[in-house]
Design a protein that fits this description.
The protein has 220 residues and is an all-alpha fold. It is built from 12 helices and no strands. It is 73% helix and 0% strand.
Length: 220
Amino acid sequence: MCLLAGVGLLVTGLVGLFSDVDEGVLALVLGIGVLLLITPSIIDRIRSTRLGQFEVQLVRQVAASARRAANSLQRLGLGRELDAYATIYTELRGPELKNVRAMVLDRIIERVAGAAVVEKFDQDEVKAMFREGTPIVRVLALGLMEGDPSLIDGEILLEAVSRPLTGNEQYHALRLVRDEWNRLSPAEHAALRSAIDASPHLKDGSARGDVARQIRALHG
């Protein structure tokens, strides 16, 4: 599709050279056409390069602590897709790409949460994913909880809020606390509220801070 669109734009641009089309528009069309032509080669490079260079085998990381969960993701046809998203997420570096990384990770969480809606995952395996997994696998475990609230564990949420490895982990844990507040016990409410108050990262104005403020209102 990229190649066809790229060729089409290049042909259109070349035809425009012999008409009265604005030069700025022609340059834009030709530039987009060239970009579309080289996009497949970039994707092929990511796909073909093995682990240790570009490819991130996310489902294999899941299998290290939760083999049945990894098999379920593979059976649902998510293996290659999740690996591709994880590769892109890992390669997007630099503070200027922070928002793009967050969007890619949100897509991963969305797909995993959808899997937990149609497939039953084991709660002990999900807990093991969180406790033993890499930073991205820990967020993946929270995504499964988002899809199936019966997987929620109060201790996991407390750890993710009070001692997160990444900001995304804390954000998704806070969302779970807010959305599934009534599933948690009064003791868990109090512990989570204390963890939120003690966290230095939950300042007003940030996405995490906004969710924390909503939880405080629930607690009150």
